[in-house]
Amino acid sequence: MPVQYTSIVEEHHAVRNNVGIFDISHMGQFIVDGAGAGDGLNSILTNNAGKLDAGVGQYTFLLNERGGIIDDLIVYRIDDQKYLLVVNAARADEDFAWLRTHLTESLSLTSRGADFGAVAIQGPHTIALFHELFGKHVELPARNHICNVPFNTTNVLVARTGYTGEDGIEVFFPATNAVEFWNAALERGKPLGIKPCGLGARDTLRLEMSYPLNGSDLSPERNPIEAGLGFFVDLAKPDFMGRDALVKTKEVGPREKLVSFRMKEKGPPPRPHYAVFRDGERIGEVTSGTLSPSLNWGIGMAYVSSAHAKIGTEIEIEIRAQRFPATVERKPLYRKPAS
Hints:
This protein has about 350 residues and is of the alpha+beta class. It folds into 3 domains: about 10-25 and about 115-205, Probable tRNA modification gtpase trme, domain 1 (Gyrase A, domain 2); about 30-110, 2-Layer Sandwich (Alpha-Beta Plaits), CATH 3.30.70.1400; about 255-330, Aminomethyltransferase beta-barrel domains (Elongation Factor Tu (Ef-tu), domain 3), CATH 2.40.30. It has 7 helices and 17 strands. Strand 16 (about 315-320) and strand 17 form a beta hairpin.
């Protein structure tokens, strides 16, 4: 996926106002299959895969023994004993090796990323484009559900998920159908204002929603409690990789927390690794930052000491040896205007 096809701002607004399509074929796709697959995944992933009915997915984490985040991913139960894991491209090889080491030998683990493509279609006109692609009477899956849908001479998997804050779907198909599906989506989406979108727009869209990015806001040195994502951790499960470390973090409280912030003045946008200050004391570091096309303000995410993570806290971001005022904000940073 390129950084941009036309311009980041143009692609960003296409998703917020019309519809955009992202090529996400670079993401890893794993199949875990066999009797007890759900139990096997439950021993490794933080969320409770045992609660998934066939055709339903959930956001979850793959952790190391210290509770650090190896990857964040979505797991879909696509059959009684068969699961699809969609993982970040940069972590795919590491994830596969970790799963192969820690899943029981009775389970089948295969990587199908080289043989399958995928796109994310996001924006308020997604439903209209779905029906243009698959038929007026084909039912759209519910949020976080996944189903098989006929497309021309093949079947594709359609999931109601996304990473932009807009309504959207993700479509998985054999690689041999990738060009056909991409071109069909662009052609049938023309009346809806569709635009192909790149990594730049993905980043500005997800940051407005305060969605973390693996490798920037999430890492093996950070755990889900610190990242404010404890909702996706089921500590009631008797055991899973990294659980003990998370229980300890929960008991004593995280030393630092991931917060969203907004700059208070027009000026240079915040960027990763910029220092965060309060009352002259360095309290943290920016992990993601950009100029928000929807808000027209600098926004970002940062790990700061827990004592300064309260919403409304006044902070400063050091940019090119100058400190600019900002405020810790409630998530998400962008909320769609009432219609």
